Amino acid sequence: MAQDSQELAHKVQLPAQGGVVRALVLTGFGINCEEEIAAAYRLAGAQATIVHLNQVLHGAVSIHDFDVLTFPGGFSFGDDLGSGVVLANKLRYRQTGPGGRTLLDDIKQFIADGKFVLGICNGFQVLVKLGLLPNLGGDVTPEVTLTHNASGRYEDRWVRLRVHPRTATPFLKGLDVLEVPVRHGEGRLVVPDAAARRALEAGGFNCLSYIDAAGDGTSEYPHNPNGADLNCAGLTDPTGQVFGLMPHPEAFLSAFNHPDWARRRRQNPAAPDEGAGLQIFKNIVEHIAQKHSVLAN
Amino acid sequence: MILTDLEPITHTIQLTLKPGQHDGDGHRVAAAAARHLGLATGRVRTAARYTVRYGALGTAQLHAFATRCLADPVLHDVTLNEAVAPVPGFAAYILVARGPGVTDDEGTSAQNALADFLNEPLDTHTQHIFSKRLYLLENDLPAADLRRLAEELLGNKMINRFEVGRVADGIRDYTPRPGGGAEAVTETISLDGLSDGALVQLSKDNIYALNLEEMRAVRDYYGAPATQAARRAQGLPADPTDCELEIIAQTWSEHCKHKEFSAIINYKDLATGEEKQIDSLFKTYIKDATAEVDRQLRANGNDWLIKVFSDNAGAVRINPESLFVWKVETHNSPSAIDPYGGAITGILGNNRDPLATGIGGARLLFNTNVLCFGNPAYDGPLLTGQLHPRRILEGVRKGIEDGGNKSGVPTVNGAIVFDDRYRGKPLVYCGTGAVMPMQFAGLDSWEKKIDAGDRIVMAGGRVGKDGIHGATFSSIELDESAPATAVQIGSPITQKLAMDFLLLAARRGLLKCSTDNGAGGLSSSVGELAGISGGAVVELEKVPLKYPGLRPWEIFVSESQERFTLVVEPGKMAELMALGQEMEVELTDIGHFTADGSLDVNFDGQPVARLALEFLHDGVPRKTLEAAYEKPVATEPEIPALADYTATLRQLLGALNICSREAVIRQYDHEVKGRTIVKPLMGATGQAPQDAAVVRFNFESWEGVAVSNGILPRYGDLDAYQMSAGSFDEAVRQIIAVGGKLPNLSPGDNIFWSVNDNFCVPDSVYDPAINPDGKQKLAKLVQMCEALRDATAAYCIPLTSGKDSMKNDFKADGVKISVPPTVLYSMTAKMEDVRRAITSDFKQAGDVIYLLGETYDELGGSEFYALHGELGALVPRVRFAAAKELYVLVGQANDQHLIQSCHDLSDGGLAVALAEATFGYGCGASVELPASGLGLAAQLFAESHSRFVATVAPEDVAAFEKLLAGRATRLGTVTDDGRLTVRHADQTVIGAPTNELRHSWSNGPVNQLLGVDELAGFGETAGH
Fold first, then answer.
1. I need a labelling partner for B347 at 20 to 30 A (CA). Which of A18, A136, B208, B606 fits?
2. Is A188 in contact with B1021 (Cβ distance < 8 A)?
3. B331, B469, B592, B903: which one is catalytic?
4. Residue of A nearest to B364 (CA)
5. CATH code, A5-296
6. Could you give the residue ranges of the DSSP H alpha helices within B654-797?
7. Which positions of A are catalytic?
8. CATH number of B11-169
9. ipTM of this predicted complex?
10. Cα radius of gyration (chain B)
């Protein structure tokens, strides 16, 4: 049930090829950003395969044939019961194999194998509700949550983010400030206790912060669009392999996605057509490709 | 506190926010109650409740489900079958539940979660978990106030059930119990010998919406000896069955048959005495006009017009590989009585049109919405059944948010028009663009082919009583007795699953063709498709229901949402059904197509309807209507000239029809899919309004489409022809402003344009008693259509699809509120390279500012006059030849990279356009108006058509002036002082900091109503 079925048949039957980075992009049940995420991986040089979640749950596709697993944005199950809740529930409880094995068990194995997981917007919400983020305790139990914006409303607006200097995740390598759109109604990170806040901060696991015009982290609307604790827009787990964020880097694949592109092109006609959001995908693809080449040698 | 409920196997789970957690919903309810209803609620706490009716579940299982699946461990406390946890200090409660049979997506998602949790098969297709919301109020409000709060703020009594009272008296619960009652029986209804009066009464009682002549035609058909003989031979009763009459009523409804646009019209101009007869507005002004445009296009090697007027949406060719599919619809009547449900089913229903064009399976690219409301600050009386304009606005806005956002389709632009005549019936226009490959599995994607023997498969949602009589209901005036079954709530997730399925099924070659189930339900979709093969047989007992208790005719005409009718070759059924199962989309084989000329509907093997397709599709009597035109008397007002118009400009920027819509726009996702290049608001500030959206088709090429909407209803009070012509021109010039080009300028240039016309008019059928000015209204409609024909010919732009909504009146308590005659032109045009798009905002100090086009003494109908409570007389006129010449020149200037910004002039004229162009970056502008013969007010505020404000870099000025010779007036320069200064005859006539002007615009009434000022509790969240 890949969006492009022929492509899937072709890809899945191929034995793993050295050097080729294989990105799995899940879809179905209301996920709706799968096409632009697949485009992002392709533009970054990876093979991207869009697969309906049921194909994974029913065993037709194995996540272990891929290097990076991606949960795109959207409204899985309509955000009913809270965004990401029903999808996370399916991954945690729906039995996919003998002995009560679930897809969450496979994802834990996938991470233990040194592979990567990315969740954007609704995908980030799924990872948080599953407890894969921030996973400070290492036991994949929900420790924080994402809930209704302080404004009580869904909003689409561009924000500026600062990358935490102590973050170790390869997704954000070399990045400092990032401009991206947020498009959510439930993006307010709630960290329930001070100890968790300290642990996040100490490890740089709160890897992205909303910043104001002066470049400082802010709780002020609209620069911080949802009132998140720690002004936090994204999290990693302690390994850095699992990364999730509320904003949409895949919505900034071309420079012409930015709301101020026309004036910027005027000022810098030689600027590349590429959008700054692509760098996150290039980072992870390059990181995995390097790992592959080390293994191959 | 004891929760009373009679069912022993019913369990109720309640989620309450943990102490200290921010209750944003509660804050907003308290604030809105104070602001809109004048009710002091005190603090409000909210809770979610789920009533579970799965018989075999034990309490322990349910408790585990509630704590592990429904509750967020960070946010919620859980109770199961317990009294509401006593929260100290809350005196009153409101419980909001859904009525029987109303879509409950939240409950259904809980069912899916339960099935995953238990790893057991569970019936998730019918409702077993019912979601509700409980509001606890600090203040001990009387029951009447609680009920008012419930009905006006928290829900709609057409779809919700409320329980209210004092917490101390115990909280009453309500759980719907849909269905029951009717058995699956079919009755006959005798028309034989009925008098004219009895026929009309029968039509009214059963909401057939058929007039006397049509009822007579039905009676005569059944009375004809040939029909009688045939029915005897087939074992059918002599009298029509209820199902047959319902099928005829749906098929012949104005909504489906466009009887007034197909009527013969006798037109008389009362001033000149000139008379003419029009043989169908549709044929004369729309179909034939487009055929002429197509002839000109093809003569010039432009053969991109693929499918017009004959399917769910129009199709044009983008390139040899793909088609662009475009449809705009209205959903006015449902939005009047249930704004949220009306709008969400409007947008989801309109999505199904391009999805089910040709074979089906187009990929949706974007949505656009144009909305017409009464003033949200209206403080006059409301008629029985009439909702306040503010509620309609908020409900419609939310419906579009959920319908678009949850489907993953960006809402890339739109418009909101305010006029108090829309306070009875709002207009809700929903548009959707999509892309379809030219071929699916080797077959032309846009073709609908059906052969006898092909299977009929219903896909998607199930059938309930919701939406029965939608097609006929929208074909009559709205009154206080609007049927509750006409209301329905959409389920975006159900449609998203069906959409994902349809895309894949088409690409795998499993579909022969498809159509959507909209107005008229299966009756309409199967009835229309049967016309292709020549007949169909439907086995109604196979249709899956949401709940029992529907009669066969109800199943056949129900408009329950999110359904497609698929046509499948028998040999492909197995693969199709397997794909549906894998993607969790319910598919049901409900019959097959035939070629015997009749539509057969059976239930449990017994015939419930058999109708000859010829009679069904061609038997409706043609209407003859009368139109008579009398030019309205209008005079120009005397408005004293001012030396300084700065205050006037500020007032205009804050006027209801000009001010910023940012609070609405930002609640729509306008960039999901990552392809939106020109968004509604742009610039470094994100507050520069744009003229048209630009969207690229994919990530592999830079080809894209520009999207615009033209609508100017207030000009119609002066001149319906010029209103329609001006609306058309507005949409064209918006596309030119963003860098689009007119079609057919050179041989084979392949610049497609695809336009949908949408007429929404008041009842225009003359009746001396109930519609005495019907002839004048119809005459206006004729003039609007004439302007449309002239515009398509002038610009060589074809129409590809459209809609007419003919009964936009609200009647109650002996009063009728009619919309002004309104037409919306929704335009799309190919952009060869979206990187060459132009935005409206000034970009750099030193750039030279030009006015392109000519200003006339045309303040009639302007926002400037409206500010003074005047209408005036001199309405803006479209000069097609001059406009086209200018648009060609602007296109050439863009080809030479000469234009840095371009903004079309519309509401508020030049002054407003200049101000808006500074909003993107806070630039200033220094402008000197020319010494023309025109008065200063007209220069600043006239809304003459076909004009732009454009800026040009200093180094390009010579080339630009040479190219635009005579059409561009040099006004001044962009400055870096952050001030807008307009001078005329050595005097400063406007002078203000541009950030203050932006403040006037962005703090106008729309953002005040819906904006971020109600950010209750922001401080509270910062505290934990």
1. B208
2. yes
3. B331
4. A32
5. 3.40.50.880
6. 662-665, 720-737, 774-795
7. 121, 248, 250
8. 3.30.1280.10
9. 0.94
10. 29
